[in-house]
Write a structure and sequence with these properties.
By secondary structure, this protein is of the alpha+beta class. It folds into two domains: 5-54, Arc Repressor Mutant, subunit A; 58-139, Alpha-Beta Plaits (2-Layer Sandwich), CATH 3.30.70. The protein contains seven helices and four strands. It has helices at 5-16, 22-29, 33-45, 58-61, 78-89, 115-127, 152-155, and strands at 65-73, 94-99, 106-112, 132-139. Strand 2 (94-99) and strand 3 form a beta hairpin. Helix 1 (5-16) packs across helix 2 and helix 2 packs across helix 3. The chain is elongated and about 55 Å long. This is Transcriptional regulator, AsnC family. It holds the Pfam family AsnC_trans_reg. InterPro entries: ArsR-like_HTH (IPR011991), AsnC-type_HTH_dom (IPR000485), Dimeric_a/b-barrel (IPR011008), Tscrpt_reg_AsnC-like (IPR019888), Tscrpt_reg_AsnC/Lrp_C (IPR019887), Tscrpt_reg_HTH_AsnC-type_CS (IPR019885), WH-like_DNA-bd_sf (IPR036388), WH_DNA-bd_sf (IPR036390). One of its GO terms (cellular component) is cytosol. It comes from Neorhizobium galegae bv. officinalis bv. officinalis str. HAMBI 1141.
Length: 164
């Protein structure tokens, strides 16, 4: 799907405020409400917008431990990766996991009640015999920046010739 400048403004607006009204969105992007709503629906149906979420500040709810973990698997067969990823995807405390190139296979972000709860989670993963060869733990001591959004206008150049 080719995006134009209006599509990018819509994406930026709903990413900044998922609760924006149809009218406010239309005004913000410079369209009348119906065409704006149709474009929004098109972006949703194309899977560019995957959902709308509230962004929580976990430490205001309870004291937590945020941990980054580098994980290397012993074997690198497709089945090993698939099995590991299936298990990781089902654990709610693992809030993000990336398969990466370089010296490790995965980097995971874990949010746990405390360090003891984190270690119990790791011990459980090791007990499941997922093929984890080694892991390195990094305790997050301070969040400097954590954005969930995409810098839409910085990453995408709209097709200037396409008019809406």
């Amino acid at each position: 799907m080719k995006l134009d400048a209006i599509d990018l403004r819509i994406l930026e607006a709903v990413q900044g405020d998922g609760r924006i009204t149809k009218l406010a969105l239309a005004e913000k992007v410079g369209l009348s409400p119906t065409p704006c709503w149709m474009r929004l629906r098109k972006l949703e149906k194309a899977g560019i917008i995957a959902g709308y979420h509230a962004r929580l500040v976990p430490r205001k709810i309870a004291p937590i431990a945020s941990v980054m973990v580098e994980i290397t698997l012993a074997n690198h067969r497709q089945g090993d990766f698939e099995r590991f990823e299936r298990v990781i995807a089902a654990i709610p405390e693992i809030t993000a996991c990336w398969s990466v190139g370089g010296g490790v296979d995965y980097i995971a972000k874990i949010v746990a009640l405390d360090i003891d709860a984190y270690q119990r989670l790791i011990d459980d993963l090791l007990d499941r015999e997922l093929g984890i060869e080694r892991y390195f733990t990094y305790i997050v001591t301070k969040t400097v920046k954590e954005e969930t959004g995409v810098p839409v206008t910085a990453l995408f150049e709209p097709d200037i010739d396409q008019r809406s």
